[in-house]
């Protein structure tokens, strides 16, 4: 895109009754502290890492299921939003320095004015079980898959790494300094819209999943390359065999 993506955050969307539990859990996962809220209603709360710039936030929502959505940071928000719409996004709301949109597959996301963020957080945790939240996976219904992959590749301008013909994954390779890679997963079920979840890169995924269990998370299933976990408020994420620092 003409206005490159200079930073990326992911927002965990959670209702007020679940906010404290969500904040406490993800602060432990990321070795962060809950920062000072911003927004017209103080609804956006950063998780401030010990080292690096915030890239995981919590957003208090009035209603709806828990989940997450990505934010892309650019210099010229208005121009980037126009380009997103031209590529198939729907514009929802505008406010100073922020435009809320939906992708062609109806995933909410925001375009935000870049304020100089540049330092990715480091892995945290005990030696041998260090981990970092470093990838957002877009869960895409099969009938929306090609269009959604094309949209995100064109919007970000990031290199798209395609899987094998029968592989359900594509990947957008993040430029240096961006905190999240983007994994594009084709679903087999009839989920009506695109959703998103976080992935952690780990030194030892079993050790990390066990640690998260002691903090109140529930292991849902174990696959060859990842373990599906549900946090104390119902947000699902994956602990993967990806090594911290992977592209």
Count of helix runs: 4
Residue share in β-strands: 35-45%
Radius of gyration: 17 Å
CATH class of the largest domain: Alpha Beta
The tally of beta strands, per DSSP, is 16
Distance between the termini: 20 Å
Unreliable sequence segments: none
Helical residues, percent: 10-25%
Give the strand order of the largest sheet, numbering strands 1, 2, ... along the chain: 2-3-4-1-5-8-7-6
CATH homolog superfamily of the largest domain: 2,3-Dihydroxybiphenyl 1,2-Dioxygenase, domain 1
What's the main sheet like?
Answer: 8 strands, mixed
Structural domain count = 2
Report the principal-axis shape: globular
CATH topology value of the largest domain? 2,3-Dihydroxybiphenyl 1,2-Dioxygenase, domain 1
Average pLDDT level: 94
Order of helices and strands: EHEEEEHEEEEHEEEEHEEE
CATH architecture title of the largest domain: Roll
- Structural class of the helix and strand makeup? alpha+beta
How would you characterize the overall build of this protein?
This protein is α+β, with helices and mostly antiparallel strands and 247 residues long. It has 2 domains: 7-113, 2,3-Dihydroxybiphenyl 1,2-Dioxygenase, domain 1 (Roll), CATH 3.10.180; 131-240, 2,3-Dihydroxybiphenyl 1,2-Dioxygenase, domain 1. It is 19% helix and 38% strand. It is built from 4 helices and 16 strands. The chain is globular and about 45 Å long. The two termini are 20 Å apart.
């Amino acid at each position: 895109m003409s206005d490159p993506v200079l930073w990326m955050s992911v927002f965990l969307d959670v209702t007020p009754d679940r906010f404290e539990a969500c904040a406490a859990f993800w602060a432990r996962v990321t070795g962060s502290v809950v920062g000072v809220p911003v927004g017209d209603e103080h609804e956006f709360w950063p998780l401030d890492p010990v080292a690096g710039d915030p890239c995981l936030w919590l957003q208090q929502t009035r209603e709806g299921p828990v989940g997450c959505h990505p934010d892309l940071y650019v210099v010229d928000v208005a121009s980037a939003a126009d380009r997103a719409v031209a590529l198939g996004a729907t514009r929802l709301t505008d406010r100073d320095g922020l435009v809320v949109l939906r992708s062609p597959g109806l995933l909410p996301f925001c375009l935000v004015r870049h304020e100089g963020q540049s330092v990715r957080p480091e892995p945290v945790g005990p030696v041998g079980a260090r981990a970092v939240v470093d990838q957002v996976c877009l869960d895409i219904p099969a009938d929306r898959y090609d269009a959604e992959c094309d949209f995100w590749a064109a919007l970000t301008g990031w290199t798209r790494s395609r899987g094998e013909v029968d592989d359900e994954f594509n990947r957008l390779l993040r430029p240096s300094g961006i905190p999240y890679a983007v994994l594009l997963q084709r679903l087999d079920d009839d989920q009506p819209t695109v959703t998103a979840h976080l992935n952690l890169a780990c030194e030892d995924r079993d050790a990390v999943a066990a640690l998260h269990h002691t903090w109140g998370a529930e292991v849902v299933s174990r696959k060859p390359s990842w373990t599906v976990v549900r946090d104390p408020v119902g947000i699902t994420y994956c602990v993967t065999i990806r090594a911290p620092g992977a592209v």
